[in-house]
Amino acid sequence: MRFKPGFCRICDHPISPFMDFGDMPIGNGFLSLDGFETEYFYKMKVAVCERCFTFQVVEVPDPKKMFHSNYAYFASTSHYMVKHFQEMSERLIDDLKLDENSLVVEIGCNDGITLKNFVEARVPSIGIEPSSNVAEKARSKGIKVLDKFFNLETANTLVEEVGNADLFIATNTMHHIEDINSVFAGVKELLKPKGVMVQEDPYLGDMLKLVSYDQIYAEHMYLWSITSLNNVLARHGLEIFDIERNKFHGGCMRYYICHKGAFSPTEQFLKQQNKEVKLGIKEAKTYHKFRLMCEESRDKLVNKVSEIRESGKKIVGYGATAKSATIINYCNLTCEDIPCIFDSTDFKQGKYSPGAHIPVLPAEQFKDEKPDFAILFAWNHFKEINDKEKDFERYGGEWVIPIGQLPK
After folding, report:
1. pLDDT tens by residue, 281-301
2. Minimal CA–CA distance to 329: which of 97, 83, 21?
3. Which CATH number does the domain 1-307 belong to among 1.10.10.60, 3.40.50.1820, 3.40.50.150, 3.40.50.300?
């Protein structure tokens, strides 16, 4: 289902963009030389619905342009994320008392970073993953994976074939889906009466605080808050009953969701809900201020890169992330500004960044390059990367953080 431009994809209320990032490529669309001439671009504008308060990219590409056999994100490349989802899985197995008679379903299971923990614990589980290359990686870990998009039809098929789910997981996924109502309609049908959905995504409140505008790209078509998420959940008889915050991906919120009335709301959920009022989630002036701060952040980075180049010193990029596509193209950075980006993902190495076509080189070569400065596009993995590249600062290298500030 495709949506009418200028209308909220959640509640169909008219929306107007408050910020225009210009022409943008697909964030994870790393490409070979022969793909330059046919590269796809879209107009990236963002808006907040005045009725349901959902922060969203106004017009998004067809999902098949973003999630396919050449999808370039493999979650398990980060050891920190592997540990994070292992700990989450172990807690859920214990708290929900999951066993061989339970059923876990994960949407956007990627390379199996989470579900492998349930497989190892002998808890029956099924992954839903439309990108066939990462789905195949998950299958190699013994996970049953369906190569498709999740919606009400998929949910009904699962109920008929395997029954209802005790746990439905969606980590870094629910901001990727254009027709989000169809997903929550499916969750409503799939969950047992006391079943729980666990959703974890980058949090709008953290993005506003950190001015981390690189969280916005086609695949991140929504930035959720408690306010906006509960509004869409209410349309499907679901609600948030608990939350947890963490610092991954520059600030994430984990939401615990159930059928309406199945569990009582926790104190920490109610406190965070009140904090959103003070943050101004529902106020237009909040987003006007955010736009001005993004422009200030952009100008600061552009000036920094210019100063480094004019001084004759060497600057490179580190972390060929989807986030980097937003920064590079919004700031109009080119190969002349940044001659290369180093990255640890085999799939991206030897390819070129979306839009600016900056070469991506193996992270192992970073030590040999000995740059004076490195723009850390993967700033949300600062500790992990800084630990790995200890020699960089020892010989006088300096990390350049491309957003407003690092999370504390």
Report:
1. 999 999 999 999 999 999 999
2. 21
3. 3.40.50.150
